[in-house]
Structure formats: C-alpha cells, structure tokens
Amino acid sequence: MATPREPRVHEPEQEAQDVPEPPAPTLRERKKAAAMRHIQQTALELFTEYGFDQVTIEQIAATAEVSPSSVYRYFGTKEGLVLYDEFDDRVLVGLSHYLRQGMSPWEATEAALDLVAEAHFVVEADATRERVRLFFDNPSVRSAAYLVVDNIVDEMAQMMADTGRWSFGQGRVLASAIIWPFVAAIKNWHEDTERPWIDHLEDAIATMKEMAGR
C-alpha cells in the first residue's frame, strides 16, 4: 500500500508565495456546486451498481429526487455526469488569477492545482477514482471527453491572450502542452493506482519542464 503524501503539487518560489489567492466561491456558486455534487454522486453510485449503459437519466433523477430537466440543465448528457468536475471551475478561476499576476503558464497551473489538490484527490479520492474508471471503461465517455478538453484548452488560451503576453494561437499551443500531459497522468494513475495521484502528476510536470528546457 502506498504511503499517503502531503497533496502539494509543487514547492513554490518565494515570488509565488507572495501572490494572493483568488477569491473564494460565492454562496450561490457553493449552493449550485452542492446540488450538482448530489446528482453526480447519485449517478456514480448507480453506474457502479448497474453499469453505465444500463442507467438512464430518468432513473438518476428519480433516485436523486430531482427532475430529469435539472439533470440535463446541469450536465447536458449522461456522459457529462462522469466528465463534470466540480473542481475545474476553481482551477480555471485560479489559473486566470495567477496568470494576471504575472506567473508563467506552468507556475499558474501548479498554483491553481494546489487550490484543489487535497479536496479533489484526498477528501474526494474515491469519487474521483470512480469517475476515472468510468472514463476509461466507456468509449462514449472518452469520445465526449475530447470536446470537453478542447473547450478547456480554448478557455485557457483566451486567459493567456487576455494577459497580452501571448496571442490566442500561442495560448492554445501552451494550453494543449499543459492539458494533455495532465490527461496522460490520469491514465497512468488509472493503470497504477498503487502510486498516489500526486506522484503521477508531479512526474508529468517534471517531464514537460525537462522537455521545455531542452
């Protein structure tokens, strides 16, 4: 059994330590996140028990005691119930904030991931691991994921372009160089769960930094 580690993505430089954290989510945002978390957790339990293909949106809604329209409004599709990550918004807000503070894309990404590392991969480790399993075990989820990743890449690219330090095209290249190693780290974790997730992530970051320095 792997020994738990402190869920820190990196040891920041002094300059990064001096940068204030982004604002916390509002009460409205927290209430929405709680409602979506309840629906998603219900869906994950049903997927685990009966299989992804056998469960319908209507069954999820009935079990979660919400309307099917609420499920569609929040998640769009059944695949979206697996792909939605409540921590993504926090990471993207943090990324935008740290980029505006002058950090490099990698520094900003590491600092943004630090905001959610413990909650995502320690407190919510079981749910995260089940979503990863469903992702890799179901082709329809993996297909839908490409569009999600593509949208996130462009959102990150726009954040970089908004700083005035890069064009949108350059931002898209940089964002892709960050996101796809992250996806690879998730797959490595899926295939080697004995090692903590944070080890796989740190390996991916170190590898990309080494390549960038060549």
Automatic annotation (TrEMBL):
All copies of domain HTH tetR-type, residue ranges: 33-93
Residues in the DNA-binding region are 56-75
Database matches in InterPro entries: Homeodomain-like_sf, HTH-type_TetR-like_transc_reg, HTH_TetR
Where are stretches of biased composition, namely Basic and acidic residues? 1-13
Keyword Transcription on this protein?
A: yes
Q: Does the keyword Hydrolase apply?
A: no
Region (Disordered), start-end ranges? 1-25
Give a single Pfam family match.
Answer: TetR_N
Under Gene3D superfamilies, the record lists: Homeodomain-like, Tetracycline Repressor, domain 2
UniProt keyword list: DNA-binding, Transcription, Transcription regulation
Q: Quote the protein name from its UniProt record.
A: TetR/AcrR family transcriptional regulator
> Could you tell me which species this protein originates from?
Georgenia deserti
